[in-house]
Automatic annotation (TrEMBL), chain A:
Top-rank taxon, per record: Bacteria
Ranges that cross the membrane: 27-45, 57-78, 87-105, 125-142
Listed name of the protein: DNA uptake lipoprotein
Keywords linked to the UniProt accession: Membrane, Transmembrane, Transmembrane helix
UniProtKB/TrEMBL annotation, chain B:
Organism name: Cryobacterium shii
UniProt keyword terms in alphabetical order: Membrane, Transmembrane, Transmembrane helix
Protein name: Uncharacterized protein
Membrane-spanning ranges: 6-26, 33-57, 69-89, 96-114
């Protein structure tokens, strides 16, 4: 804390009190956990429902991959120190790229992703949360990095 | 699923969700009110589980994937529990927001369950 970035004088006096940023970070982590659960659930159903898996291995493999990445990102956000910070950046970056690429592809060529993944149509089936969340996640990581250093 | 019960459950979960987020943003720590509302949401989910198990025996069958239905239902049952445990460990306003968000998530999941049970081809 050599150069406090915060313009709130009270926070400099009490360095241990959780700030508003880390507080909102809790909500972010909770929503990430929820999305990890949603992606895992979807992937579980697609893989284990015998009538489902056959027709779209690409979409369903992607669902499983997305689920794993959301789980790792959630853990990384909870730890969010040392090497976990980098893990958080990588997984959240991957999610943003994933939702943009798959979202665009599903609009340009709907046949390719006719079956649902969390990223199809920019996460429309999940209230666009998969599109908004990585951006908020990066904002929070950047913000936290500033406060720390 | 029973239609009126599903709508009741959806209403309660939505109100509990908005209440939690509202109280949290109004700087309230988790209270009997916000946690009680969440407990009610959880109770209704357990009731829904019983209904879902019994309904097929009365000729009320799910029209969609039963596996998908139960994945949603079991996940939905876990979500408020996780949120309340979190709220008890960390008593901050943001925990109240999280408890509310968990109830809203349950509302969405119950609606999806209703779709799986009744509407096909979505």
């Amino acid at each position: 804390m050599t150069a406090p970035q915060s313009n709130d004088a009270a926070t400099t006096a009490e360095p241990v009190r959780p700030t508003r940023v880390t507080g909102i970070g809790r909500v972010l982590i909770a929503v990430y956990g929820l999305l990890a659960l949603a992606a895992t659930g979807r992937s579980f159903v697609q893989i284990f429902d015998p009538e489902e898996f056959g027709p779209a291995p690409l979409a369903y493999s992607l669902s499983a991959l997305a689920a794993v990445v959301y789980i790792v990102a959630t853990i990384a956000l909870i730890k969010s120190d040392g090497p976990w910070r980098r893990v958080a950046w990588i997984t959240i970056g991957f999610e943003l790229v994933g939702v943009l690429v798959v979202g665009t592809l599903s609009v340009v060529d709907p046949e390719l992703f006719a079956h649902k993944t969390v990223w199809s149509f920019f996460g429309r089936g999940y209230g666009f949360v998969p599109l908004v969340l990585p951006i908020l996640g990066m904002w929070w990581l950047a913000r936290r990095g500033k406060v720390r250093s | 699923m029973i239609e009126w019960f599903t709508w009741l459950q959806l209403g309660v979960a939505t109100v509990a969700g908005l209440l939690g987020i509202g109280l949290g943003l109004a700087d309230r720590k988790p209270s009997d009110l916000s946690l009680g509302a969440t407990a009610l949401v959880e109770l209704l989910l357990i009731a829904q589980l019983v209904v879902a198990i019994v309904a097929p025996f009365t000729g009320n069958n799910a029209s969609g994937s039963v596996l998908e239905f139960y994945t949603y239902l079991i996940s939905a049952i876990l979500v408020p529990v996780a949120a309340v445990v979190w709220a008890l460990i960390e008593r901050s306003r943001w925990s109240t927001v999280i408890v509310g968000a968990s109830c809203l998530a349950v509302a969405v999941m119950v609606y999806r369950m209703w779709q799986i049970w009744t509407v096909q081809g979505l």
